[in-house]
Design goal:
Length: 119
């Protein structure tokens, strides 16, 4: 099984978690066009090309797919938030929820990776 793509996805999504935090705190600029769709990001391409089929024996994959889409949707939504809203309680709550979703996504990826190594 090709676990390298799971590891790369973990790293990429942790980087997005950091990048979005930096954006929220004014350290980095992001635009809507810089946020790939969940099907066109590297993980999405791999997932749709072979990952879903290859790792379908793991029940976590059924949870991972919609969560991946949700994460991308949240990034796009937050990148479009006006600065005032990002700095408000609403923005802080959105960032906190996004981080929790990212953590869950990474946890699922790591679980699948562990199971794949022992399969």
């Amino acid at each position: 099984m090709d676990i390298m793509n799971l590891q790369m996805a973990t790293i990429a999504h942790l980087q997005w978690k950091s990048k979005l935090s930096d954006f929220f705190y004014g350290v980095e600029d992001l635009s809507h066009s810089q946020v790939p769709d969940h099907c066109t990001c590297d993980f999405g391409k791999w997932l749709n090309a072979s990952g879903l089929q290859e790792f379908s024996i793991f029940p976590e994959m059924r949870e991972l797919v919609p969560l991946h889409k949700d994460i991308h949707d949240r990034i796009k939504h937050m990148v479009q938030m006006p600065k005032e809203i990002r700095k408000s309680d609403t923005g802080k709550k959105a960032l906190k929820e996004f981080k929790a979703k990212c953590d869950k996504f990474v946890q699922l990826l790591e679980t699948v990776e562990t199971q794949a190594k022992s399969a």
